[in-house]
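User: I'm preparing a small set of examples for a lab meeting where we compare how different chains pack in three dimensions. I only have the primary sequence for this one, and I'd like the structure in token form so I can line it up with the others. Please keep the answer compact; I'll paste it straight into my notes.
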Amino acid sequence: MKTVMVLVMLAVAAAPAGSWQRFGPDGITLAALTRVPGSMEEVYVVTDGVPALVFHSADGGANWALRDTIQDRIAELVVVPGQTTTLYAGGTTGRVWRSLDGGWLWDETGALSGAPRLRRLSLRPGTPSVLRAVAETVRSDSVVGLGFYVSTDGGVTWSSVPVDSGRTARAAALGTDRERPDRLLFGGEVDGVARLYASSNAGASWRDVTGTITGSCLWSAVVSPQDSMVLLAATGDGIWRSSNGGTSWSRVNDAPAWSVAFGDAAPHYAYAGSDNLVFRSNNLGVDWSADSTEFAGTFTRRLEINPQDGLDLYAAGGRGAYRTTDGGFSWEERTVGFDRLTTGFLSFHPTSGDTVFTCPPGYGLLVSGDRGLSWESLPGFAGAGFATAVAINPNAPDTLYVVTGQDHRLFMTSDRGDSWVARPVEAGFSGAGLAVHPTGPDTFYTWGSVRPFESEERFGFWKSTDRGHNWSRLFSPGTRGRCYGFRTTPASDSLFLWGAVDGRARVYLSLDRGGTWLNRSAGLIGRAVVDLKTAPGDNRTSYLCATEAGVFRTLDGGASWTRLGLRDVTAVLADTADPAFIVAATDTQGLFHTTNAGAIWKRDTVELPHRSLAFLVRHPDDDAVLYCGTVGQGLYGLGVIGVSEPGRPGSWGRSFGVEPTVVRTGAWLRLDAVPGRVTVELFTPDGRRVGPVTTLDPAPGNRLWVRPYGLAAGVYLMRVRSDGPDRVARLVLTD
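Assistant: Understood. Below is the structure token output for the 735-residue chain.
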């Protein structure tokens, strides 16, 4: 198997285009959506990830056309009223892009100072040359600032005003009073607590108007166009309303809310995006109802209401874009057929490696029983769209366990999602991963962070010895941070943890199953270790890890680390035999490989051109099979479903043969040495499976395979699967 892996990994660098195959799932992770002012049907959407893809629809989302790509990760898109071919896009890199021809061509028009992470961008009503933005700026390893930015020359130059800062901070909302356009709202979080700020002088100064609002982040804030004293705000703790300009607040709906918006044509109407629901109010946000469950998708961050019709709106999030023309009584998905989802993790079934689970952010739980060829949605629970890991009980294949980044509990189902129960891990727990001990299926581990109320997020690692019913925190170093990963050694006696502690990349080792821990981070630089993998050699001492500062290697179990190069690395993978061959995924520059342990890195711009990559993993049962998750471009695989053309005739000996090889209706398979059932699959020469899987009953000697109905004439590869190695034959189907 090691020899096979060397050949496959070399194929990353030298194989012909098309060796990486896209596996969906279907859907689109939207970074931005905006309607064209004055048009009932024209709308733009932008995908997440780098490069960002700009799509346009002239018929309300019934059909889409790709306009252009932007070499940035876009957070916001706006269209200039009255100049509808002029668009601005804000990138999380702090750059601002402009198109003058309806999105066909984009140029960088300027950049915010201090390299901030831009989150929201808007135009001043009535003055399209004035742009406003909110962003986060990393001031140091221990301080993150929230800043307001303004440009008066169409985004060329920018000035900034600091608003707040903390150990952690996030900018999320930018609201404007349309009657008084210099009155602004700025929402987000500081140190894990929702914050809302108001300005009455175009952002020159700000005051905190959070009041009694609760939640970990304030995601959206708006001013009523009918009564400017009425404000609405959305947090994970519900919808909040103020009738006195933010002096006091009351919670008017306790469902999680990620966006709020008022209509123009019917200004007493308001909408709020929740989990698989969009709530509507017809009395300025006092009362709320949801009329339909046809809408799907958690974390609904975008609401775009038709200015001429208060019942016509788009709602968008992790699952795509939906439209209603009756105020939410009925919804229609408007991004059908896209395969542009963000895929942040894969979890493999422990007893059936062909079964994999994932959860695109804001989408919900998905499962594939054929290595990713096809996907189906699993029934979920409230908040399932924030799932970060899935684990399976090896003794009960329908029993699943899930943790999320938004809830302090572990969720369990024994019937594959038809019903769920929740078990608390710890108040403030945010899950990053979940694992079952390889030699003790009653022992579970989970990791991530814990954030007690009004305090900072802290690195955390938990253990359960009763299949997740009760948990104890084993390790929580430092005063702030997050654990990103966990692994055991093959003998399961040593445990590794990695992540961020007090602004520093950290790796920890326990030699007594979590009783005590050693800091094994000497030589590491960067703010967080985001991936750690075994490297060739002694699997107790040779490892690779990834931080935003590059790829690092240890040959002594983490006692010392050496930097091998690159920047902004999100995942790393070693060859199984050659220590000098390494593949690395990055956040914005795509996939790299080195054949000389980092002396020279080469970027793959042909086979896997997408630049925002989330993970690299091998199939647990087949080292020659690789998966790569991307941001906004779906899941890719190398060697996942492909089959190789058989060698010279008779290369399988007398144990396998197909007669005839030119087939009209069927063929005889000679499987003299194979007892029991066998399955037969057909693939196109490029490795795509076609037609149904055929199961042949046990029988001595030859077995008859019948050509599936409707299968077109052509050249195919037949794979026969049974106990022992797979067998492959070449077939020609004729009419």
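A couple of notes for your slides: Residues 27-108 form one domain. The chain has four domains: 27-108, 109-338, 341-566, 653-733.

User: Perfect, thanks.
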